[in-house]
Amino acid sequence: MSSLYIHIPFCIQKCLYCDFVSFAGKQYLYSDYTEALLSEIIKKSDICHDNVIQTIFFGGGTPTILPITLLEKILNTIFQYYTVSPHAEITIEANPGTLSFSILHSLRSMGFQRISIGLQSWQNELLQSIGRIHNRTTFLQNFYHARKAGFENINVDIMFCLPNQTYSQWQETLYSIVHLQPEHISAYSLILEQSTPLFTLFEQNKIKLPDEILDRAMYHTAQNILSQYGYEQYEISNFSKKGYQSRHNKVYWQTRQYLGFGLGAHSFWQNTRFHNTYDMKKYIQSKGNIHLLTEDVEHLTISQQQSEFMFMGLRMTEGISAIDFQKRFSVSLDSVYGKQIHFLMEQNLIQQKQHRYFLTHRGIDLSNTVFCEFL
To answer: How far apart are CA 148 and CA 141, in angstroms?
Structure first.
């Protein structure tokens, strides 16, 4: 079983907090980029000819900025060259302002059953302050059109700890979204990345961010409100209705293999990590030649594999299984990490239930401290 990630690195406008591999104003590259992407998809198909694809995820950037004809070409090529399970989860990310009923209907018709819409905040003034292209009204129109087009699995992304965001604004965002009843909600704390305009504004004291106390209060409020409305927290930042966990994201957290396609896309295959070039010109000129594309190949040692199994798996509320660890590595969990587990349990950061270990509520708040124990 395997998964595929498709990177579409184009946006109408780059958000002020974004450090992803994405570009605005590059419409003239859409066709050339797609052709290079199709070549890569075809040439990499030999790598996983014996694997059944269980999840496909189109991310970005803003995948829905690409013309429907090009998106259809990409998806059709995947189905032509890969064995895709009839029950595969096929997701596309979208930003409000790049959708219409016609586009959504086409996406649903071509095979996408899950859509992830980046709202981020309910307040128009906050959306403007972080460089989003949409407002609340646009989001609502897009959400209702997605439902009308037949999407029965919708995720909404929201963010807290935004510049000048208040506790009451975050509450309003949460209550507004749960009343729409999407199947999945991702709630992230803003992380300032050094290469972004927002970081520069912060360094120049032109914006103010909520302090750590308010950050934690916002996070705990999200946990409480979402729980009250039937959303189960299954990962540090992710909540879903029963049966609607993101199967694709769980591939990452459970350290299962996946192939990435497109500019800068990362892969984890047969215990080896690598990524594509971040150079757009080089990517397009490579015409899918894997040897020209691939950079930073790292063959993980057993110790590194065990480490990732622990700190990635502990992100999920179900935690990690000592039985699964034994099956994968032919050695007991206790013999490798017994000392660390004992220390973390003494600190009330992780707890045990039968053969599973998972973060406590305190452990979730101090998750980076926990993860460091397994590095």
So the answer is: 10
